[in-house]
Amino acid sequence: MKPTVSGRYVVEAVSRACAILEAFSAEGEALRLCDIVARTGLSKATAFRLLFTLEQRGFVEQSERHTYRSRLRPLNRRKYRFGYGAQSSEFAFSRAVSQSIEAAALAEGIELLVLNNRYCAKTAIRNADLFVRAQVDLVIDFQTDEHSAPIISSKLSEAQIPFIALEIPHPGATYYGANNYHAGTLGGQYLARWATQHWRGKVDEVLLLELPVAGALPKSRLSGTVAALRSNLPFLSDHQIVALDGNGQFERSLEVVRKHLRKSNAHRVLVGAINDPSALGALRAFQEAGRVDDCAVMGQNASLEARTEIRTAGSRLVGSVAYFPERYGEGAISLALNILKGKPTPPAVFVKHQLVTRETVDQIYPNDADLQDASIA
Fold first, then answer.
1. Which of 61, 136, 362, 371 is deepest in the core (most CB within 10 A)?
2. What is the CATH topology of the domain spanning 180-322+354-376?
3. 15, 47, 12, 13: which is closest to 31 by C-alpha?
4. pLDDT tier at 267 (50, 70, 90 boundaries)?
5. Which overall architecture, per CATH, does domain 81-177+327-346 show?
6. pTM of this prediction?
7. Does pLDDT of 327 surpass 70?
8. Could you state, in order of their start, the residue ranges of all structural domains in the chain?
9. How far is residue 119's CA from residue 143's CA, in Å, rounded to a whole number?
């Protein structure tokens, strides 16, 4: 509520009209009548009459959704405060997303409360409680467990905090992230071409490194991979496809592929991984077993570690599908501001993908040497 003004020469009607205009704290912000009543302390009838008058004079406009927008630049711009739940500091992809979000928020003058979900469902739920207590304007959350998603969504919804979910869908949240099936088909098509060129299309086994805890949408990356392989390698059968839970982590993927190779004698193995840490873990298992020539591995995310491996002469990480996490911040922050301004926004915004191979990596990422030097420093 705005402070009241008093004085011999104050015109009360003008003062109340100013209170209406000051209620709009951000450019393009859309407010309902009840929002304006709450911010000004005016009665509903008074606020309505003033809004009608200001609309007639061109200072305020009303939308079809029964909300109002000021046509003036906000007199007192309020600084937004966002909550950002980072997936983890363990993965290069997650770190790149976080750096991008923080840079974009800084550029827009947004205060950012950053909490680390630590790749842990319980931590992500606790962080949601912290965002609620901090009364942030909006939350951008990157957490992986689909089972905790309804809990987090419920907490934020109850607190009336808008919510953007990165990579993993959450009920009621706007989704921002991968076009998973499409990304999977890009990788699968290249694996099939590689097998055709190097093994004459003869494949003994397709090994999939899954992340079941993330749910159905991320799994569609691997569904897309398999669909593309079937389309291009018509003799591929169901019994040749083996799925392992790598949990999206290097060590876990290394362990499960190690165990699998002890009982598998397949010599031409195509590996499709849910992300680059799983892809690199699988590759390491083949290397340790002295069977690296038996595999061709496709990653997802095109992280710096994966790009470094792809550049290695003779590497069997033959490619990775880029998600460009360095661009997530600009897109997610822009989406967040549109949500707060009441602008029409889609329920899901997909990033663009591009296949990265040894032939294309230097064209797509020409500055990797500088990034590696910076990480060493």
1. 136
2. Rossmann fold (3.40.50)
3. 47
4. very high
5. 3-Layer(aba) Sandwich (3.40)
6. 0.78
7. yes
8. 12-70, 81-177+327-346, 180-322+354-376
9. 7
